[in-house]
Amino acid sequence: MFSCNNENLYQIKGQLSNLDDDTLYVVFETSESIKIDTIISNEKGQFSVFHEQDADFLIATFYYNDRSNWFTVYPEVGKWTQVTGEADYPKNLQIKGGRIHKKLSKFQKKAAPIFKELTDLQKNNISLDGDEAMRQSTLMLELRKIVQYFVKKNPDEKASAVLISEYFSNPDEIEQAEVILRLLSPELDNFFLVKNRWAEIERAKKTCIGAPAPLFSVTNIDGQTFTSDSLVNKHFILAFTALWCDICKTEVMMLDDISTSYAKDSLEILLIYLDDDLKEIREKINQDTIQWNIVADSAGQAIQLFDLYNVNSLPTCFLVDKEGVIRLNTVSGEELKQKIDEMMK
C-alpha cells in the first residue's frame, strides 16, 4: 500500500508511540468542503490514509486518544506526508513532506521546548491557576514572538499563513492579527487561510467593544417578540448559554444578582440557549424565581444569533447600552456585574 504512487491523491502515513486508542478521526478541509473519516492504527501505532484531490489546497486534522489530542497536516497532492513521534506531545510530532512542513519544521525546532512545557503543564491540570497560569501565559507570549519573527523572515511562505491562523486567531485580538497579516506578501492574498483570517477579523469587528450591536428580531419561548428597536432606551444583555454547560448557569454568571438588582425598564436580559429541548428548558426555569426571557433553538433563532454575534465559546455575554453600542463582550460574570454597576450609576 505504501508503494502506491497516484498523482491525484493526498497520501499521509504515520507512526505514533503511546497511543491510548487505535482509532483516529481525520477531518479533511478545503476552501469549499469538509469531509470526515475514521482510520484504525495497528498495534505499532502505524496508520495510513488517502484522500482524492478535490481542491488546490487541503488541511487534514487528526484527532486521537478519544479526540483529546490532535495534529494538523498540510499535504501536497501526489506526495507522501509522514508523521512520527510521541502521541502525548502532538505539537512536537515530526511531520515531513511538502514545502509547508519543510518550513514549519524550522519553527517547530525553535519552539519545541515551549511546546513540551505547555503540554506538561496541561496534562494533569485542566484548570490552571496561580503560578501555573502565569507560566502558561508567559510561554504563549514567547511562542507568539517566535511566530512573529518567523513571519517577518518568511513573508511569502504559506507556512507563515498557517502559523498566523493557529496563533493569532483570537477574535478579541483584532489589532495584533491585522498587524501580523500585513507582514505577508501580496502573493498570499488569495491563499484561503489568509482570506479566511481577514474575513474572521471583519466579522469580529462587528461585535467588538464600541461597535453598534448587530440588529436582530427574535421570539422567546413564550411567544413574545424582541427586536433591537424594542430594546432602545434601555441597557440589555445577550447571554449565550446551554443546558449542558455548567459554567453557564445564571448564578455562576451572576445574572441572578444582576437581574434582581435592576428593574426591567432599565435593563433587559435575554438568555440565548443552544438547545432545542423546550420541555427541559421550561422545567429548568420553572424551578427559578426569576422570569427569564429565553430564546431557544427550536426555530433556529439561537444559531442565527450565535452566528450574528460571532460567538464561538460558552458562556459569552454581550452588554449593550441604551444607544445600541456594545460596551462589553465577556465570559466573566464578575466582569459583567462590575460593568453593569458602573453604567447604572
Short synopsis of the structure:
By secondary structure, this protein is an alpha+beta fold. Helix content is 34%, strand content 24%.
What labels would you give this structure?
345 residues; alpha+beta; Immunoglobulin-like; Glutaredoxin; 3 domains; five-stranded mixed β-sheet; four-stranded mixed β-sheet; 9 helices; 34% helix
Write up what this structure looks like:
The protein is of the alpha+beta class. It folds into 3 domains: 94 residues, Immunoglobulin-like, CATH 2.60.40; 108 residues, no CATH class; 128 residues, 3-Layer(aba) Sandwich (Glutaredoxin), CATH 3.40.30. Helices cover 34% and strands 24% of the residues. The chain is built from 9 helices and 15 strands. A 5-stranded mixed β-sheet has the order 13-12-11-14-15, with helices on both faces. A 4-stranded mixed β-sheet has the order 4-1-7-8. Strand 12, helix 7 and strand 13 form a beta-alpha-beta unit. Helix 1 packs antiparallel against helix 2 and helix 1 runs parallel beside helix 3. It is elongated, with a radius of gyration of 23 Å. The mean pLDDT is 91.
